[in-house]
Amino acid sequence: MISDFVPLLKISSLLTLFISVLFYGYSMLYDSAKKKKSYGRLGMLISSFLIISLLIIRGFNFGYIPFSNLYESMVCLTAILIILHIILELYQKQYGVQFLTSIMTLSIYSYANFLIPIKKEENIFLLPALQSNWLVMHVSVMILAYGTLLLGSILSISFLLYKWFENSPFLKKHFYMFSHDSNLSLPLVKTNNESLLLENLDLLSYKFISLGFPFLTLGIFSGAVWANEAWGSYWNWDPKETWALITWILYAIYLHLRMGKNWKGTKSAIVGSCGFVIIWICYLGVNLLGKGLHSYGWFTV
């Protein structure tokens, strides 16, 4: 049966992701390793194909679109991050950021496959609250929001790391060498112009967060409508809902502060970096509690 390929798809996708991380790291450290970076890109493309195939097979086997539990959502998030990573690489070709995003992607996928209980991974029965057309709308939009906002926050963290440790010989030698293509719209060429690096990291972070915020807004809105349909109330102050609101407020503050010149750079990067922690509390932390209306994502109580 086609489901017999699932273990092979899991192992091969994990392996190709791991190899891609190695290639990106090698390319960042060694200026002459441009070809190795193309191998990393190829590995990401192969991984995306394998993971999407895994999701399709799971959907056919279980008879629903695979968005129903934490394992499935993390696999979907991995696929989204790989696609965003590839898009970023096509337009920006930044070694350091690609290395960081590939590590984050591998970490998420490894968590999904090694740390989530098997019984949750193999759960094939949808709870009544999940048997709704809103499932695809709400979860897909939220995963897109998490993916784009996580990338934006990673860029903010990169900004702060370089800003705070800019006198490090290692960073001066490797971290600012993001690109060797002087024809890019936002060039980060091999140069000692550190202010240019910081400016571009700041701008890229802003663009990804600006892209993810509307998805987050739409996801919260669709979730409220779905909650009213399922539980008779638009808002129940469930832990997941509360932290989703906190996440929304944080990024709304970030975007609002960016309107002022004095809040560009380090100040906005600090707020954006905080978003990385808040997202993981919202997405994963509240599931570990096993409490609230969203407890189906991890444990049942």
From TrEMBL:
It is a multi-pass membrane protein. One of its GO terms (cellular component) is plasma membrane. It is found in: Membrane; Plastid, Chloroplast thylakoid membrane. InterPro entries: Cyt_c_assembly, Cyt_c_biogenesis_CcsA, Cyt_c_biogenesis_CcsA/CcmC. One of its GO terms (molecular function) is heme binding. Residues 68-294 form the Cytochrome c assembly protein domain. The keyword Membrane applies. It comes from the Eukaryota. Belongs to the CcmF/CycK/Ccl1/NrfE/CcsA family. Required during biogenesis of c-type cytochromes (cytochrome c6 and cytochrome f) at the step of heme attachment. May interact with Ccs1. This is Cytochrome c biogenesis protein CcsA.
